[in-house]
Recover the amino acids of this structure.
């Protein structure tokens, strides 16, 4: 297991780092330590199962630009090989990062501290290696753990002002968006 991932996270099969991993958790509690099951992951959309508007469109987590510090928002899911689609495909890696499939050097990052916004950043940036992500299958949550103090946060969005940027919420948040993510 890489030294950046806490020892409480189980070890992975040798090919998980190259193939990508799918993170899941069959726990009874809302946010216990997830189990990690290595499987081939070619890139997935992180889709909210909450309705966004009066249409039946699906909304995906999307980075707004392929530039460092770009924000994330929920946008209608795209198809094909468009640039918009490339901004919506993600892979969980063996170090707890969420990498963009088209631009694997770019990750969803958090700088730590009191700010709760997530930004696009360089995966290997030492200033942004304060956290790791897991996906909880049972609660449909994307969980960020602060590696300095083991505090957990949930990825979500304002469920009233839905088009605002994606941010972190406390692990016991009542915001329904924090438990609405599925992989497609």
């Amino acid at each position: 297991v890489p030294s950046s991932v806490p020892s409480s996270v189980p070890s992975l099969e040798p090919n998980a780092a190259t193939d990508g991993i799918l993170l899941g958790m069959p726990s009874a509690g809302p946010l216990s330590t997830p189990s990690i099951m290595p499987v081939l992951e070619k890139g997935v959309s992180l889709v909210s199962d909450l309705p966004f508007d009066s249409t039946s469109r699906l909304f995906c987590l999307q980075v707004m630009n392929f530039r460092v510090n770009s924000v994330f928002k929920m946008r209608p899911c795209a198809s094909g090989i468009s640039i918009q689609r490339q901004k919506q495909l993600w892979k969980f890696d063996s170090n707890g990062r969420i990498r963009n499939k088209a631009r694997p050097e770019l990750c969803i990052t958090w700088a730590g501290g009191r700010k709760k916004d997530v930004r696009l950043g360089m995966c290997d940036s030492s200033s942004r290696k304060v956290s790791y992500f897991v996906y909880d299958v049972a609660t449909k949550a994307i969980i960020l753990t602060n590696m300095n103090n083991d505090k957990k946060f949930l990825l979500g969005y304002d469920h009233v002002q839905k088009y605002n940027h994606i941010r972190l919420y406390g692990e016991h948040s009542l915001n329904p968006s924090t438990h609405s993510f599925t992989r497609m």
Q: What stands out?
A: Confidence is low (pLDDT under 50) at residues 1-40. Residues 51 and 178 are 14 Å apart (CA to CA).
